[in-house]
Specification:
The protein is about 15% helix and about 35% strand. The protein is mostly beta strands.
Length: about 160
């Protein structure tokens, strides 16, 4: 037999086929069009985290000592009731939205100015939770909030 007619075993064939498949999968992961990019002049920072206290179908968050003390500040609120994005929109108003990205369920914890950014695939949301850049196509869930004293209450 010549080299062109050499037979290979099933094991050799399967090993080669699996290797080729894995290589193509790894190559695809590195060049995904939905991967977040740092280009385009974006300046994404990770938001600080505040602990929320769950009580009576609401989550309470202290304002003092956090980024919420100033208008425009935002934090990730971690509580037993869920994870929320909370931003101060004026002296007495706050926006509260769910922090779970509608694309693949990652926790949104980045900010680029007044835009929230998902760290997994770069979906972007405004302070009201509306999609301003994909791959996500659905808005984040909004919650009513109230402010009294030093506490923001997110109604669930």
């Amino acid at each position: 037999m010549s080299d062109a007619e050499t037979l290979i075993s099933r094991r050799q064939f399967c090993t080669g086929a699996c290797s080729a498949t894995l290589l193509s999968l790894f190559a695809a992961c590195g060049s995904s069009p939905s991967s977040p990019s740092s280009g385009g002049g974006s300046n994404v920072t990770t938001l600080s985290t505040s602990t929320g206290k769950f009580t009576n179908n609401s989550v309470q968050v202290a304002v003092s000592g956090s980024a919420l003390a100033t208008v425009g500040g935002a934090v990730v609120v971690d509580s037993v009731a869920g994870v929320f994005l909370l931003a101060r929109t004026s002296d007495s108003a706050f926006s509260a939205i769910e922090a779970v990205c509608t694309h693949e369920g990652c926790t949104v914890n980045g900010s680029d100015g007044a835009i929230y950014v998902c760290p997994c695939h770069g979906s972007r949301y405004d302070r009201d939770g509306h999609v301003v850049g994909g791959p996500a196509q659905a808005s984040l869930r909004q919650y009513k909030s109230s402010f009294a004293g030093d506490t923001v209450t997110i109604a669930l």
